[in-house]
Specification:
- Helix 7 packs parallel to helix 11.
- It is elongated, with a radius of gyration of 20 Å.
- It folds into 2 domains: about 100 residues, Ribosomal protein L30/S12 (60s Ribosomal Protein L30, Chain: A); about 160 residues, 3-Layer(aba) Sandwich (Alpha/beta knot).
- Helix content is about 35%, strand content about 20%.
- The chain has a 6-stranded parallel beta sheet with strand order 7-6-5-9-8-10, sandwiched between helices. Strands 1-4-2-3 form a 4-stranded mixed beta sheet, with helices on both faces.
- The mean pLDDT is about 95.
- By secondary structure, it is α/β, with parallel strands linked by helices.
Length: about 270
């Protein structure tokens, strides 16, 4: 395969896809690493995230696995661009790049349309309010998929969905559960719509009903709040149920990712 040298314009384009402003402009984002890219390709063409192109470096093309990547891309006519190693390092977000990344398109449906679809869902929808740490956000998405939640909504002041570290922390679960990024919209307005549709709202809190004693309905939203400040007051003014996880008096609180994971596991046992 021919090894290309990217123009400055093309380098800037790939680098821009890690910036939320340009992600929105182009409707695209990047995933990195063999496992992520291979899974994205295997899920085509049914995935919400269509693969636009694959970029590999001059070292990766000599690896045995490259033939498998070529097979998967050929099935969907997805182009592969091979570039020099030093240029790949310039566009990679990884400290030790694996030499392969994919450019993915945003879902064809707008976030507003997809949010409307969620209003008809049953089960558990995870709502993230002000979760700033990418690791926590990605972990919660992963746990939501693992414990059978119906969807995840990214609320106000939460780290952006297409942040590289968020995607990495999902460990591939990103592809297996609907995730709607509504960080640009008022969270109380969104939650009010779900309340109108008969959803029960559960808010994780340090002073609430023991999670082991709760019961839930057919349509539920579980809210996990900011790592320090918790759930915003405007949300807590909506009709809701406060729930808490019993912990030792020696420990002040749980990490948002851990608390959310425990709550999701408990909710999954009640569905």
């Amino acid at each position: 395969m021919q090894i290309n040298k990217l123009s400055k314009v093309k380098l800037n384009y790939y680098n821009s896809l890690s910036n939320k402003r340009y992600q929105r402009k182009y409707g695209k984002f990047i995933i990195e690493g063999l496992c992520f890219v291979e899974e994205a390709l295997q899920l085509q063409p049914k995935s919400d995230y269509r693969v636009d192109e694959i970029v590999v470096d001059s070292l990766f093309v000599n690896k045995p696995i490259f033939s498998r990547i070529q097979e998967l891309t050929a099935e969907e006519n997805i182009p592969i661009i091979a570039i020099k190693r030093y240029q790949f390092e310039q566009i990679s977000q990884q400290s030790s790049p694996q030499g392969i990344l994919a450019v993915l398109r945003f879902p064809a449906k707008s976030d507003d349309v997809r949010l409307g679809d969620l209003l008809t869902y049953k089960g558990i929808i995870l709502f993230l309010d002000g979760v700033r740490d990418p690791g926590n956000c990605g972990t919660l998405i992963r746990c939501a998929a693992a414990f059978g939640a119906s969807a995840v909504i990214i609320g106000e002041d939460t780290v952006k969905l297409y942040n590289y570290k968020v995607i990495q922390a999902t460990a591939g679960a990103f592809f297996h559960i609907p995730i709607i990024d509504m960080g640009h919209r008022d969270s109380t307005e969104i939650l009010s719509k779900f309340i109108e549709r008969g959803f029960n709202i559960f808010a994780t809190h340090t002073d609430g009903t023991n999670i082991n004693s709760i019961s839930i309905g057919k349509k539920n939203i579980l809210i996990v709040g900011n790592e320090g400040a918790g759930i915003r007051k405007s949300i807590l003014r909506l009709p809701h149920n406060k729930i808490s996880i019993p912990i030792s008096e020696k420990v002040d609180s749980l990490n948002a990712g851990i608390a959310g994971a425990i709550a999701l596991y408990r909710f999954s046992s009640l569905i």
